[in-house]
Every structure is written in structure tokens, then in C-alpha cells.
Specification:
The structure holds 2 protein chains of 2 kinds.
Chain A: E1 3-12, E2 15-25, E3 30-34, H1 41-49, E4 56-61, E5 64-65, E6 76-79, H2 91-100, H3 110-123, H4 139-152, E7 157-161, H5 169-186, E8 189-194, H6 197-203, E9 206-211, E10 214-219, H7 221-226, H8 231-236, E11 241-248, E12 251-254, E13 257-260, E14 270-276, E15 281-284, E16 292-300, E17 305-312, E18 319-324, H9 325-331, E19 338-343, E20 347-350
Parallel strand pairs in A: 3-8, 3-9, 6-7, 7-8
Antiparallel strand pairs in A: 1-2, 1-4, 4-5, 9-10, 11-12, 11-14, 12-13, 14-20, 15-19, 16-17, 16-19, 17-18
Helix pairs in contact in A: 2-3, 2-4, 3-4
Chain B: H1 2-6, H2 14-40, H3 45-52, H4 55-88, H5 94-100, H6 103-106, H7 109-120, H8 127-130, H9 141-151, H10 153-166, H11 169-177, H12 182-210, H13 216-220, H14 230-239, H15 243-273
Helix pairs in contact in B: 2-15, 4-9, 4-10, 4-12, 7-9, 10-12, 11-12, 12-15, 14-15
The chains are: A alpha+beta, B mainly alpha.
């Protein structure tokens, strides 16, 4: 089922949790709502679920307005960060709950419920713990049970609120892949909220970056990584180096490098910041035009990729360059040595003039 | 035990605090209770048996335990309701209502008894409306239940309240998303979580009610075989200087209360085991 969000606004007292958000979630996709904490992403998910009501705007399921329908009538599966399992019930009863509470005329027979619950438990690979209680399971297992429970009622939409947020890194990575496979098998329209950009990038078909109650950018993970639409997205997705500079009549001078910026042709001498990914920082030993002299502060060469920390000699701050470990070895780079740094690819954003919206927080 | 006592613990003072606890409980609880039993041992078994099974005494057991259980049961239902209102809703004067719950603790029970008697007497504010309906409160078992319900009100409220406060709204939201109605959420999700606290409240309310004396002497009228509670019977035995008989009845009451509390405790443990994290 497709979901349309039309001009949804939600306030808590004077705080704008969601500010006029419109969004389309196509049928069958796995969409990530990505943003820092307090950005409003969970509020949006709860409004889609019917757990909260928007102040204005509407949510449409398959083109029909969900209106004031409560979560009970929306046929959505909801998975909570802290699982929200019923701790006085066995795992079997937890998964069977949605079927067992149906009115008599639409309730499946005991044998049918039994079959279905065991099929779901097999699907989440936890069939062996049907008679246990939630407290006897690990976090990752509990979350899989929570998913099985949500899927038991065959929801048309699956909503997940930071589903892996309470788990440790290894279990998280495993469950991530597992969720992706599950989505590929069931094809159910799914929306999940996360503050972890890596998680959003790895699992989802589409990513919606949310900040301060607004959609910053939406697109495929590759799109968002390669073409960030705003400084905020640039900083939030992946590591980035900032080069102070200025833009004047279509030319940017960032960190000593001159770049043509036709889109800023009419700008007269404005402060700007160049954003460079660590893997786009080239480290050489010869002083070309536009290179910056920098001192190597530290080299982390563990695994195939090495991170080199540099302090520029004419600017403040620290840069990070990323390159294959072999390059570090073949160049014989050493801590304390002076090298020359040039950005391979820069994205320049003009700094907002004082008084307009504040610059995005550093991540 | 010596192994346990000598084991080094990160928390200091185990020996001192345990020693004090044993001494304290021994002086305060065990000593009076054993004096009770020792005094009873003055009697022969036949004397003991005829005292504790006399028809007047048996009638008083039934009344005492019956009314105490009834009052505790009433408080489970309405105490739960009060706790629910205090936790779930925000309204003007909530603090005041919350403080009012503890008042039956603070009031001398005799005062409560006199107040209730004058209210429910056939000429009282409430009694005058009940009398024509054929409902007799004062000098009847019903009056005893009213008084016991009053004095044991805070127990269920105060045991259920914190548990209800801790109950996450997420489980309720999860149940709603799975299609459960409000009633189903209450009976299947909330109530099972509250059972251990409800049982604790019930046990405390019952224990308090079964030993109550002050408020009942006024409202019950103390008619032998009809509205005479066991504590009052013991008191009248004492007035007649029949100390051994009084302690004998006391021992029976103690034993019965102990067994009842033990049963509630086991039920609670059973409920708790399924609730563990």
C-alpha cells in the first residue's frame, strides 16, 4: 500500500516537531527516515501509524484519507525500539495476540493460529522458543519476535521505530541484512526510522533525510551520498572536511584552490565553505598550484583503508584523508612530515548571511 | 550460615545490620507472640479446644475473617480505580485527592468509628435514606464491612499506584496496533502486569482489617453471635480476667491469619515469576 503525507504539521507547545512535510512512499518500498535525534522523524512515523494526530495536514493510505482513524483500524504493523513485548505472555502467545483478540466471527481457528504462529516463528528462526518468556531471550531475538508479532496480523504497512537502536553493533548489522531479506520476500511497504546513516544507506530503497521538522532531501542512498543537496546532508551522511573560502562572481576560492562555480555567478564576495569527502583528499609530495601544505598528525592504517590526519599549516583545524593502506606504505608517509593536500572533488555551499537560519551542527 | 556471614561483600555492614534486624524483629514481633503462645500453654488441650470452638467464638471467627476478606476485596476493585484515576488522568485538585487517600491512616480509628456510626445510624445523613429500603448498616455485619473498607483503603491504592506509573505506554500501543480493543488491552495487558501489586495490597488490607478493633466497637453494636468480632471477644475475655482463654483465641486468630497471608504470598510469587525481567 502506498502512503502519501500531505502538508503535515505538528507542534509541541512552541516547538515545531514537523513543519509542513509532504512525502510520497511508493508501494512495496523500504524507506528510511533518517535524521538526528529531535529532528521529528519518530513523530512522523507515529503520525503515519495513527498513534499521534497531526495539527494539520493528512495521511493517505492508497489514496484514501486515513483521517482520524486510530491505530487499531489502520492495519499497520508497528515495531518499537524497546520491543514492547508482553512480558507475562509466552513467545507463542505474543505472536498469536493479534489473531486471538479478533472478534469471534473473523478469528481463525485454534489450529490455524497455531500453524500461522509456528510459520512466523520459523521465518524469524526462533521456533524453538515458543514456550519461553520474553525475558529469557536476547535483545536481537526479542526484536525478531516483535517483528513476527507485527507480521502475524498481515499489516499492509510495516513501521519500525529505531528497530535496532538498542542492540549492539554486531547483532545490529546481522538484523539489518535480515530485515532487507525479509522485505524482499514479503514486499510489504515499510518505513523505518533511524539516526544511523550507515543503516539507512545499507538497508533502504529510498532515504528521506529529516532535520528540524523538515525534509532536507530524499532519494536513493547513492543519490544522497553522491549529491547532497545541503550542507546539513553533506555533514550528516559520511565524514567530511570543511575548507573555508570565498565565492566571487562565479569563482570559488576554497582552501587555496580556485574552482569555477557558474551557479554562483551573481554572488559578490561571499564567505563559503567547501565540503570534501576524506577519500577525495589527495596527498602528494610536490607543491602544485592550489595545494595546501599540511603536517601529518596521525596515521591509522588498520585494514585495507588508511585514515591520515593532517593539520594545514596556514589554516586551523584538522583534515582527514582516506586512501588505500598500500598507498601509505608505498609513499612512506610518516607522522610529522610535511605534505601537500589538494581536494579532488569539492562541493561549495555559500554560508548563510548572519540573521538567517543557523548553520547545521557539526556531526 | 557461617560461610555466608564471613563472605566478603562489597556492601559493608552485613553482620551488623543482620544482627540488628534479628534482634529488632525478635523484641518487637517474636517476643510478644511467643508470650501469647506460652500463656496459652497454661491450659490443657481439652480446655483449649472447648474455648476456641465455643459457638460464640466460632461465630466471631466467621464474622471477623468474612468481613475482613470482603473489605479487602472491595478495596481491590475501588482501590484499583482510585489508583488508575490518580495515575492516568491530570485534573485540577489531583494532589488533594492523592493526599486524601492516606487520611484513614492518620485518623484515630475510634474517631472514624464514631463518625461512620453517626452517618449510617437510622437517623444519620446516609442511614435515613437506607433505612426505608430495608438496608441496615449500623449494628449489622454491613456496618463492619463499611468501617473496615474505610480503614484499609490506602493499601491497594498505594501498592498499585507505582506499578501503574511504571507501566510503559508502548505495550498498550503495541496491543492497539495489533487490533486489541480498550477492554482487551485492560484485561490482557494491564491487569496481568498489576496482579502482584494487587495481591500485595489485598494481603495488607486484609491483615489490617482482621486486627481492627477501634472503629468497629461503635458501629457493630457487639451483639454476641451476630456482630461480635473476634478482637472484641478477646477484649471481653480480658475484662473478665480470663487471660488464658483470651490468648487461646488470639493464637487461633494468629494461626489463621498466618496461613492466609502465606497463601497470598505463594499466589504472588507465582504471579511474579512470570513477570521477571
Amino acid at each position: 500500500m502506498s502512503i502519501s503525507i500531505r502538508k503535515v504539521t505538528k507542534r509541541y507547545k512552541r516547538f515545531h516537531a514537523l513543519d509542513d512535510i509532504s512525502l510520497e512512499i511508493p508501494e512495496g518500498q523500504l524507506v528510511a527516515l533518517l535524521g538526528p535525534s529531535g529532528s521529528g522523524k519518530t513523530t512522523l512515523l507515529r503520525i503515519i501509524a495513527g498513534l499521534d494526530q497531526p495539527d494539520s495536514g493528512s495521511v493517505l493510505f492508497h489514496g484514501a484519507d486515513a483521517g482520524k482513524a486510530s491505530i487499531r483500524d489502520r492495519k499497520v504493523g508497528f515495531v518499537f525500539q524497546h520491543y514492547a513485548l508482553f512480558r507475562h505472555m509466552t513467545i507463542f502467545d505474543n505472536v498469536a495476540f493479534g489473531l486471538a483478540v479478533r472478534p469471534r466471527e473473523s478469528r481463525p481457528s485454534k489450529a490455524d493460529i497455531n500453524d500461522k504462529v509456528h510459520r512466523l516463528l520459523e521465518m524469524v528462526q526462533l521456533d524453538w522458543c515458543a514456550d519461553r518468556y520474553p525475558h529469557q531471550l536476547s535483545g536481537g531475538q526479542r526484536q525478531r519476535i516483535a517483528l513476527a508479532r507485527a507480521l502475524a496480523v498481515e499489516p499492509s504497512v510495516l513501521l519500525l521505530d529505531e528497530p535496532f537502536g538498542a542492540l549492539d553493533a554486531k547483532v545490529r548489522a546481522e538484523l539489518r541484512r535480515w530485515l532487507r531479506r525479509l522485505h524482499d520476500d514479503t514486499g510489504i511497504t515499510s518505513v523505518f526510522v533511524t539516526h544511523d546513516q550507515e543503516e539507512a544507506m545499507e538497508v533502504s530503497d529510498r532515504v528521506v533525510v529529516i532535520n528540524n521538522g523538515k525534509v532536507e532531501q530524499e532519494g536513493t542512498p547513492a543519490d544522497i551520498y553522491d549529491h547532497p543537496a545541503s550542507p546539513f546532508v553533506f555533514q550528516f551522511i559520511g565524514n567530511v572536511n570543511l575548507f573555508q573560502g570565498r565565492v566571487h562572481q562565479g569563482w570559488a576560492n576554497v582552501g587555496g584552490v580556485k574552482l569555477e562555480m557558474p551557479e554562483h555567478g551573481s554572488v559578490e564576495d561571499a564567505p563559503a565553505i567547501g565540503y570534501v569527502r576524506p577519500h577525495d583528499v589527495v596527498v602528494t609530495r610536490h607543491n602544485d598550484e592550489g595545494s595546501l601544505a599540511a603536517t601529518i598528525r596521525h596515521i591509522h592504517a588498520i585494514g585495507p583503508l588508511a585514515r591520515v590526519e593532517l593539520t594545514p599549516q596556514k589554516q586551523s583545524g584538522v583534515f582527514e584523508a582516506q586512501m588505500p593502506s598500500e598507498v601509505v606504505k608505498s609513499m612512506h608517509l610518516e607522522v610529522g612530515e610535511t605534505v601537500y593536500v589538494a581536494p579532488r572533488k569539492v562541493k561549495v555551499f555559500i554560508e548563510p548571511s548572519p540573521g538567517s537560519s543557523p548553520p547545521p551542527p557539526a556531526t | 550460615m557461617p560461610i555466608l556471614l564471613h563472605k566478603r561483600s562489597i556492601l559493608p555492614g552485613f553482620g551488623l545490620t543482620l544482627g540488628f534486624t534479628v534482634l529488632y524483629l525478635g523484641l518487637l514481633v517474636l517476643l510478644p507472640l511467643s508470650a501469647l503462645v506460652i500463656k496459652t500453654l497454661d491450659m490443657t488441650w481439652a480446655q483449649f479446644w472447648s474455648t476456641v470452638t465455643a459457638p460464640q467464638v466460632v461465630a466471631s471467627y466467621k464474622l471477623s475473617f468474612g468481613t475482613a476478606l470482603a473489605a479487602a476485596a472491595i478495596n481491590v476493585v475501588f482501590g484499583l480505580l482510585v489508583a488508575w484515576v490518580l495515575v492516568r488522568y491530570h485534573f485540577y485538585g489531583k494532589r488533594f485527592v492523592d493526599a486524601m487517600v492516606d487520611l484513614p491512616f492518620a485518623l484515630p480509628t475510634a474517631v472514624a468509628g464514631i463518625a461512620l456510626t453517626s452517618l449510617y445510624a437510622p437517623t444519620g445523613w446516609i442511614g435515613q435514606w437506607l433505612e426505608p429500603l430495608g438496608i441496615r448498616v449500623v449494628f449489622a455485619p454491613l456496618g463492619i464491612i463499611v468501617a473496615l473498607t474505610f480503614i484499609s483503603l490506602p493499601f491497594v491504592v498505594r501498592t498499585v499506584q507505582p506499578v501503574l506509573e511504571d507501566l510503559g505506554k508502548e505495550v498498550e500501543e503495541a496491543a492497539a496496533s495489533l487490533g486489541a480493543s480498550r477492554l482487551q488491552i485492560f484485561t490482557h495487558i494491564i491487569l496481568p502486569e498489576l496482579w502482584p501489586a494487587i495481591l500485595t495490597g489485598f494481603a495488607l488490607a486484609f491483615a489490617r482489617a482482621v486486627g481492627e478493633f477501634g472503629s468497629i466497637v461503635f458501629i457493630s453494636g457487639n451483639i454476641p453471635m451476630k456482630t461480635e468480632i473476634t478482637p472484641l471477644l478477646i477484649f471481653s475475655k480480658l475484662e473478665q480476667f480470663r487471660y488464658a482463654e483470651a490468648t487461646a483465641i488470639g493464637v487461633v486468630m494468629l494461626g489463621a491469619s498466618f496461613i492466609l497471608l502465606l497463601v497470598i504470598n505463594f499466589m504472588q510469587r507465582w504471579a511474579n515469576k512470570r513477570m521477571a525481567f
